[in-house]
Each structure stands twice: as C-alpha cells, then as structure tokens.
Amino acid sequence: MSPDLLALAAIALWGSLATLGVALASVPPFLLTGSGLLVGSLIALPLSGFDLRRWRVPAPTLAVGVGGLFGFHFLLFMALRLAPPVQANLVNYLWPLGMVVLAPWFLPGMRVRIGHVAAALLGFAGACVAMLGRAPAAPALHAGFHWGYLFAFGSALIWAGYSLMTRRLPPFPTAAVGGFAAIAGVLALLCHVLLEAPTHLSAAQWGLIALLGLGPLGGAFFLWDAALKRGDPRRIGLLAFLTPLLSTALLMLVRRQRPDASIVLATLMIVGAAWWGSRVGARA
User: Fold this and answer.
1) Which has the closest alpha carbon to 76: 96, 92, 99, 97?
2) Contacts of 87 (CB under 8 A, 6+ apart)
3) What is the chain's Cα-based Rg?
4) Domain that residue 23 falls in
5) What share of the chain is helix, strand, coil (3-state, %, to 5)?
6) Structural domain total, the chain
7) SS in 3 state form for 192-222?
8) pTM score, two decimals?
9) For residue range 12-60, what is the model confidence (pLDDT) as tens digits?
10) 43, 95, 277 from 115: Cα distances, Å
C-alpha cells in the first residue's frame, strides 16, 4: 500500500474520534485515552507474531514514542481544561502545518518551498472553516488570551515533532508502536487516578472504548507510522488537514444534518491544498 493510502487510512480512523468521543462524553478524558491506548497496543501482538521482543527499541526511541503519544494527549487535555475548546482545538490543528514547516529541521536534505508553506496555510484555513462552520450553528468564539493555548500549541509541536522524528530515529518495526501505546496508556490512567474522579463504566461504554482503541487510538498510530517511514512528510502533513473535515462531516452524518456550504468550501480548500503541495513536490 502506498504511503498516501496508509496516511489516508489513519486520517479516516482519526475522523471517527469526535463521533466516538461524543458517545463517550461522560467518560473522563484521561480514563478514556488510557483505556483506548491499552486496547490499541494489542494490535501490535499479531504484527509482531506475538513475540514481545519485537517491541524492544533503544531508550531514545522509546522516549520519543512514549513522549509523542502521551505528551500530545496530556497537553491537549490540559488545554481543553484551561481554554475554550473550539480555539484550543484550532491551535492544536497547527500540527500538520508544523510537519510541513519543520521538515528541514528534522530531516536534513529536505527542503520546504514557498509553495509548501502556502499550501499548508490554505489547508489550515480549510480546517478552520470545517470546525467553525459546523451546522446548525457555528460554535461560539471567546475573546482574550488563555494559558490553555500554550498547552494546545505545545501539543501540536509534540505531534509534529514525533511524526518527523520517526524518520530520523534508527529503524524500528511498526509493531514497536504497541509498546509506545501501552506505556502511554498506563501514564494516562495514572493521570486519571491523580486528576479525575473515579467512574464506573457500563458494558456498552467498554464496547465503544474497544472500538476507540482499535481505531483512532490504536490502528491509526500503526498506519501513521508506516506511512511516515515510506512517504514524504510534507505531503502527508497536508493530507492530515482532512482530519477535522472528516470528523465534522461524520458528526453531521450521525446527527442526520445536511452538509452546508462550509463543508463544501472546506473540502475544496483542503483537497486543493493537498493537490497544490503535491505539485510543488513534483516540480522539485
């Protein structure tokens, strides 16, 4: 499978995160993330032939992997606690732009041209349109500075850095992502114990958490790792702007809302940005 298709498969799974999150809104976020990551880590078992020795990686690689998965979610949840969620999510979605702009810093020999940056800005604008133009009414925006924005920006930097660093680290099997997810899941559950109230989950909620772990908090990470190892991170970063668009569209579908003009505009902007960025790469 091509790197673009692998990335699109991961993005499609991440697009279901908001819908599952709404269905599990009563579950504390760290409990939800920790449980989902632990379920997702089990995907690595068949990938490694049920040989846990294939999860072993050097300490620096482990630190990057666990730091990427745990740091991203921890800072994002702290941002959502301290800042208005709509703006915090918008700041967090700077990470695809970060992948495009920071690629030369992490990957020597890779250049970023003006066209790449312009396409990434267009993609980010499309993501904003998708998230702010949500039917039936646009979400409220709140003026003023909030410290949570710094956490959201840090979360974006961590995920962009993690995504690029996987290309710079010594080669490791994609199955090792299971170890990253397992340790990050344990850390998230520890945050649940320290920061959140105890919660009793129903059988239906555990079933949805299993879907969450197999999809956006599990399978997506393995697909993303495979895509980044094989593809151009600048192009993959542009494709990642499809995530908020798919997320919003799926929520509207589940709620039986008709797509409005903002979804059409966001689609044109994001797909156009991906096409533009690919043309820049082709000319280069």
Assistant:
1) 92
2) 141, 142, 146, 149, 152
3) 18
4) 3-283
5) 75, 0, 25
6) 1
7) HHHHCCCCCCCHHHHHHHHHHHHCCCCHHHH
8) 0.86
9) 999 898 889 888 989 999 999 999 999 999 999 998 888 888 788 999 9
10) 38, 18, 7
